[in-house]
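Target chain:
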Amino acid sequence: MALQFGFGLSKFGGTLYVPKLVALAILREMGPVFTSLLVAGRVGSGIASEVASMKVTQQIDAIRALGTSPIKRIVIPKVIACMIALPLLTLFADFIGLFGAMAICLHELNIGTEYFITKAVQTITMTDLLTGLFKTMVFAVFISVTACWKGLTTEGGTTGVGNTTTWVVVAASIFIMISDFFLTKIFFLTVYAGWN
């Protein structure tokens, strides 16, 4: 992103705006969305395959027969874990993304480290960070609930487990992209409009 902005803005003499643009893009969009897509692929598929395996081997039925709710025992802990882990992973991804952009700006665009840090810190606000982290909490619910629901409704043995895993990754990725559009629109209409 830093490289593309740098080459594009260099035609108009705007290379010095790269730190501002990249910092906002990473905190508001790229960090939350890319991290959530990776988690959907890795964790969402893991949850789906685990729950689906429990369903086809009748472990879910055994839990119900013992008088315990599979929702309380299986689904809720996974949803809470995703809602805690995904924002933390996103913070880490934001830091790595900004560090990478700073390195690209230094080596490819001749923008100093001090200048990059100064402009990034001046540009980003706590609102930018918090809206990105709020998005990840919504994405975490989509990933975990989709994986658990599809896992609990799996039929067809091991073939069904494989189909469930693939379906969850695709569906969670689509949910993330669509919900990101609407969340961004809501934030621009409510939060960011209030700052102007």
Notes: Residues 15-195 form one domain.
